[in-house]
Amino acid sequence: MCNSAVMSQILNTLYSTRKDSVSILKIPGFNVVIAPLWIYCPRMTNSQTSSRGNLLSDLHIKVPVVTAFFWVIKVLATTVGETFADFLNSNLNLGLTNTSLIITVLTLVALAIQFRSSTYTPWIYWLVVILISVSGTLITDNLTDNFGVPLQNTTIIFAICLALTFLLWHRVEGTLSIHSIRTNRREVFYWLTILFTFALGTAAGDLVNEQFGIGYKLGLLLFGGLIVAIGVAYKFGLNTVLTFWSVYVLTRPLGASLGDLLTQPVTPEEDGAFPGLGYSTNLVNGVFAVIIVVLVGYLSKSKVDQITPEKFEDVLT
Predict the structure, then answer these.
(1) Which residues contact 5 (CB under 8 A, 6 or more apart)?
(2) Is 52 among the domain residues?
(3) Residue 50 lies in a domain
(4) Beta partners for 279?
(5) Which of 122, 155, 247, 261 could form a disulfide with 216 if both were Cys (CB 3.0 to 4.6 A apart)?
(6) Range of the domain at 299
């Protein structure tokens, strides 16, 4: 064993060793070379650093960065999804049940493609979002119209389902970060959460409209104002996860209000309906669909919404 004098000599030599020099520690019977760590571990070259970055980036992240593009497409997708469901239900006279079956099959097919994809692919991701938005809406509509469940009850039910999903997600994964969706299990939690946000957004939005009769214009202002308020609260320290999912819920009734305002007749044809701007549903859907396709095409080419460890530290959680 080394005595205290030898240990003291070792420590003194270590602390006095310059970063670019090698010191020789003389101990009776031994000559010990002490050098900085990077003499044994050379600094990485630029190419090595680049390879390391590529390795860290190749984490199979399956969802996009939340940007302005994300929210614009989300609102437009919500509007297109709802009007598409109305088209199948009313214009083609398929009825609520048949429409629900068709959308369910399409959603499962899109989800299968999404899960088989190894990385985030914009057109696949947003196709799933559109179809899940319709599915969430149809779940609420079926409970309300076919089974007579009051909107107050469906709002509470889906709020509880959403809370339980978050609880289970965090308990199993230890994180609720949307930047680290890189396993199938996390992706299941992610899409299940999105389904419940659409169902909750539909129920809560319809409940507010039914209870208070605010109409489409005021609805647009109300839900838009709430989103702005949450954004301000986020600037003052509101939790990131709570901010994202709160806005995600509210963009559903926001998109619905926008769609109804644009497409409903100027003179309401049904009791309890509110006046809109009277634009053709096909025209609105067509314009919104073109905008979505253009934005998704841009994101596919530019890759500005791809998540990498360089952008978000919680990717590796």
Answers:
(1) none
(2) no
(3) no
(4) none
(5) 261
(6) 61-316
Tell me if 273 sits within 8 A of 251, measured CB to CB.
no
H or E segment to which residue 108 belongs: helix 95-116
Residue that the structure tokens 């940007």 belong to: 67
* Residue of higher predicted confidence among 81 and 278: 278
For residue 56, tell me if it sits in a domain. no
| Whether residue 258 has pLDDT greater than 60 | yes
Residues 140 and 72 in one domain: yes
Residues 6 or more apart from 307 whose CB is under 8 A from it? 61, 63, 64, 65, 120, 179, 315
For residue 88, what pLDDT is reported? 81
| CA 292 – CA 79 distance, rounded (Å) | 11
300 has pLDDT over 60 = yes
CA distances from 153 to 29, 143, 160, 213, 300 (A): 84, 10, 11, 19, 41
233 CA to centre of own chain:
19
Of 47, 192, 49, 66, whose CA–CA distance to 120 is shortest? Answer: 66
CA 32 to chain CA mean position, Å: 56
Tell the residue number behind the tokens 């899940």, with chain if given: 132
Tokens 């090595």, located at residue? 48
pTM of the model: 0.77
What CA–CA distance (Å, rounded) separates 194 from 1? 63
Q: What is the pLDDT of residues 216-225, one digit of tens each?
A: 899 999 999 9
Dist CA 227 CA 57 (whole Å): 32
Identify which of 243, 239, 213, 215 has the alpha carbon closest to the alpha carbon of residue 229.
243
Residue 268 CA to residue 79 CA, distance in Å, equals 20
Half-sphere exposure (Cβ direction) of 203: Cα atoms closer than 13 Å: 26
For the ranges 89-93, 177-181, 227-231, 287-291, which has the lowest average pLDDT? 89-93
Half-sphere exposure of 38 (CA within 13 A, CB side): 8
